[in-house]
């Protein structure tokens, strides 16, 4: 039997989104979260060869900074996990070396942001280096985590039970995430996360909607939100197939 899932975007940008998934268990929701953080392969600098570094930073410090520059990751099948892409940088002071100064040998792999500062160079200082980028997973190193902020919580349903008693003072009732009100999905940021702002003078009841979870996902620019989620789901399917094959041996 094929499971039926319902996905609906609440907020959607290129690198950040909030979306609702219905018809999944808490275990499955957590599996998707973990896969987005740890199992989706991304490109990142792994080895750096310095030609000249007359800056105030040691080679190791600069190599660490280069390794943490997010790189765009090609579509599945374009690169194997043992392939490398070379990026070079050559900046002479007085100037600031930025991630955008990295020149890639492959147009599919380039800095996701061009304005990440690497080092400020003074007069007569120079940074010239070559770096090899490889594809790997976040479970092996944090620099390969395409999902930099991934979380989820239950969708909550709000129902109005009536007016507050005549002499009862209204108190703030803080709630965060997304609520469902008469079938409408509403981000709590729209009413400053305070239910008393949305339902003044009303008694309200809040309950979790079973098997419905709202994900909040941010990427480092390696790929768009949709691709991160799709690749995470693919990794779960692959692992499930591997387990099924192992059990049948």
TrEMBL record:
Its EC number is 2.7.7.6. It is found in: Cytoplasm. The keyword Cytoplasm applies. It catalyses: RNA(n) + a ribonucleoside 5'-triphosphate = RNA(n+1) + diphosphate. Keywords: Cytoplasm, DNA-directed RNA polymerase, Nucleotidyltransferase, Transcription, Transferase. DNA-dependent RNA polymerase (RNAP) catalyzes the transcription of DNA into RNA using the four ribonucleoside triphosphates as substrates. Part of the RNA polymerase complex. This is DNA-directed RNA polymerase subunit Rpo3. The gene is rpo3.
């Amino acid at each position: 039997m094929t499971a039926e899932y319902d996905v609906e975007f609440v907020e959607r940008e290129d690198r950040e989104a909030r979306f609702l998934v219905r018809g999944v268990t808490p275990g499955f929701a957590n599996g998707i979260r973990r896969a987005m953080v740890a199992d989706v392969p991304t490109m990142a600098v792994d080895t750096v060869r310095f030609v000249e570094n007359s800056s105030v930073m040691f080679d190791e410090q600069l190599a660490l900074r280069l390794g943490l520059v997010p790189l765009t990751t090609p579509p599945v099948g374009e690169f194997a996990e043992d392939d490398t892409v070379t990026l070079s940088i050559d900046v002479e002071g007085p100037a600031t070396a930025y991630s955008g100064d990295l020149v890639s040998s492959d147009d599919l792999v380039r800095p996701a942001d061009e304005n990440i500062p690497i080092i400020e160079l003074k007069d007569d200082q120079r940074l010239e280096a070559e770096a090899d980028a490889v594809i790997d997973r976040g479970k092996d190193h944090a620099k390969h985590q395409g999902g930099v902020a991934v979380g989820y919580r239950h969708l909550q349903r709000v129902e109005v039970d009536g007016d507050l008693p005549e002499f009862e003072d209204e108190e703030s009732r803080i709630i965060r995430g997304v609520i469902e009100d008469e079938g409408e999905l509403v981000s709590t940021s729209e009413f400053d996360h305070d239910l008393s702002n949305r339902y003044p003078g009303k008694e309200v009841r809040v309950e979790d909607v079973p098997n419905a979870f709202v994900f909040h996902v941010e990427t480092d620019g390696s790929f768009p939100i949709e691709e991160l989620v799709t690749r995470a789901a693919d990794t779960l399917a692959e692992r499930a197939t591997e387990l099924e094959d192992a059990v049948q041996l």
